[in-house]
Sequence to fold (192 residues):
Amino acid sequence: MFQLMRNIHLGLGLIFVLMALVFAISSLVIIYRPLLNTTPQDTETAVRLSPDDAASPRVAARVLMTAHGFKGDLRQIQEQGDTVRFRIVRPGEAAEVEYARSTGEARIKKKRQGALETLVHLHTNHGLWHEYAPSNLWASISLLASAGLLLLGATGIYLWFAHHSERVIGGILLGSGLVFGLVTLYLTRLQQ
Fold:
């Protein structure tokens, strides 16, 4: 049993080390964002939508995606009289669209992020039901990696417990890590 657990532990560590690094680096970017130069590249364009396309925000977004190369999930649809606003978002890129139904004139502000902010978007991407297929793939990989990392921890605890001579120091380290994590979680919740 020890040999099997050791092989599972080693295999999971090798498989999910890159995923753990992505989350570690993106966590550091989230924490130290003010110190990093993560300003996006902004571009603005104007497009004319046909009256049929301008009638519905979903149809307008689909036209922009197919005819003008925008990709991502449709989010934050707001309709206020004749004006319609929405966003087309994917990791590392967001297009803010505003158009008037009566004229079909659309102004699009596109923000393209650098590699570090793209990692943050991947880190905070949630859910498995996106309109943008690569986001669904990433979410599935994240779910698999989360389960794999939990299993990696469980096999690590088993391997530690199997070494009788290291149980005391391992127990102290495991307990202090658990206390540190719970206290940190509690303190972050107090700040909100």
Summary: Residues 97 and 108 are 5 Å apart (CA to CA). Residues 41-113 form a domain with the Double Stranded RNA Binding Domain fold (CATH 3.30.160.690).
